[in-house]
Amino acid sequence: MNGSVQRRYDLDWLRVIAFAILMFFHTGMGFTSYDWSVKNYESSRFLDGLIGFLHQWRMPLLFFISGAAVWFAMEKYGTWRYLGERQKRLLLPLVFGMLVVIPPQVYCERVYQRAGYTSFLDFYRTLFTSGSYPQGNVSWHHLWYIPYIWAYSMLTVPVFAWLQGTGGRVVIARLQHLLLRPGALFLIFLPSALVEIALRPFYPGDANNLVSDWANFGHKLTFFVFGFLLASGIDLAEGIARRRRQYLAAAVVSLVVLGMVSKLPVRMPAALYRCLTNFQTWMWILVALGLGRRYLNVNSPALRYCTNAVYPFYILHQTVIMMLLLPLVYVDLGLWTKYFLVLVGTAVVSWALYAGIITRVNVLRVCFGLKSQRRLQPTAEAVVPEMAGSVKRLGRGAPACGGTGSIAAGLLVGLIALGFPSTAKAGGRLIPVVIAGESLAGNRLRIAESQPTAVYLPPSYSAGAKRYPVIYLLPNFNTGVWRYTAGSYQGFRLQPAVDGLICSGAIPEVIVVIPNAAHFLGSSWYRNSALTGHWADFITRDVVGYIDSHFRTIARPEARGLAGHGVGGTGALELALKHADTFGSVYAMSPAVFSGKDLARFTADGDAHSEAWQALTKEWSRMDEDAAARAFRLFMQAHINSSSREDLFTALRISCAAAAGTPTKSFPYIDYPLAASRDQAEREQFWADILGNWEPKVKAYLARPYRLTGITIESGGQGEYDFIMRGAEHVSGVMRSLGVANRLFVAKGGHDSALGTRLETGMLPTLARSLRTEWSQ
Fold it and tell me: What's the pTM value of the predicted model, to 2 decimals?
């Protein structure tokens, strides 16, 4: 053990800055088109680009710095004490985080998903019986970095211990000398690129679960190892600082090339793409190392404070973000106002918890990875798990402490400036509202009565007293409103899309309304049910009534259009046929409808599930209703969030049965058709009530006095959902055979393929141009 470890303050500063970026990054995730736990209805293309840029190198940089920290920690503590410190500083905070810090975060996500938990206690009771996330509720969420660092530390310690010996130091010195040669560091990307080339075909995503995430695991390991190998190279650090402009130029060029490649109609070969992305990542890391060495290699009270605080902040910050963002989603504030409130609120709350509670209670200090108070020496510099070392300063002269504080403040201001573009946007507004659903009151499965809804108001709405036609869009099964408003579908964002159509003269000014219909069953199929609530009435009465009474609409059927996607398409067709006195036209996108043969197959495939359902309901009947309700919610949560198509269809059948059947006597009251007690015809009739029976439904429509002015059915169900295409053709044919005019066309691709384009170029123009745009009393 070396008692005079030299400390790299530039790496300390970079670590603090990298963790600080996480707050900007994770706050931004709620306002982008990327999937995340809690989503604002409006998103920012600017944040999409910024988050995408940061994602390329933020975690690799952290793993690099963590590897460098191991060099200093092993030099200071020795191998065995270092291993003991790893357990205390990594495993204990991880366990504490998973039991205390992460559960409120997962709970916020389940609340946002309308998962049906009545309270946090009701949710927490499922923590140890639900299984792992996303099917269950046990998760380490953003703390995944900790188990990965622990695993890397355990795996590499024999090699690292040898490398710190005499022979190993010779090897490291030769490697660092080799990398000092001109142009050598431009090839540093090769190991990480080769790992991805070898493993990404088998592990395409980043699961962050440590057990089926080997491409990500191996990729980040390369940065960790290089951090260790390069940490002691003072000459190398100075060389990187001198060449930082070269690396910056290379990083910018690779960024531009990747941007151009993403717009090409053909894909780049996977191996070449992996090389280019890893090259870009390493160039940005070298830029950060060069700038840090040039400007940040100095100690200060600010650094000592931040170095101690950064680990607790990291553990806390994402949970605080979720808890602040969740209520703001449904508040009518601008996107950037919300972003600023969450960002600043997270910093303030995290600091208050850190300074006011965590540092004052020894048990919490240890749980958050800090040393207990009694062990701290009055004159010792604070040491945290990822950058342990002595206080001896290295390198050339640098600004004084006050100068360093100015640099840190400047970096913070710069990051905030990046997050808040000053250009004001013209156009319409997207506002969230919450509609009290009187029609949902008293449902037996305790689905929330009040439902969030997104409302788009056209550009001229804020001026004058003009009234507008309205398009209502019903979401698909288990599909949140934000997917249609925030860019999830091929970048489709409701507000700019409608703004563009209006400004180009493609459509008249319209109001667009997207009500939430997702809950722990996935959907209620927009039908009236004693179990799930009267969702048909909720749409046709509560939602339409609220919009007409709170906004300037043309409150007539010919000025209302109804659209839907998937299960929402099925609901739109049925509601429009039944309520042509409320809606004047309908557009069904890939509706979940079946032809006769596909319905029989759907029925037969459900037999095994119905037998399993019978066994489950018997088990739940022996519980009290609260416990049974938790078990039922967990069952649905696991199936809806599963990647298995079979699990998804099980959830679809159960939600369908809840919407169609007569309640049974015991919880969950769902009359799932049992193969043993009903013949094939009876079971087919059960499912056909929602998915089929289109001839009697169309005849009932013809018997009513009102008529729709336009019916459009669009199918995009090629591939594994090809039954949708056949079902759409069947429904269209039934209508034509009964004299009901309709338009049918087939969109290229699958169920969700090019959905953003289909919404923007198909549904919106078709419905908007069919609606009455003038109003008279």
Answer: 0.89
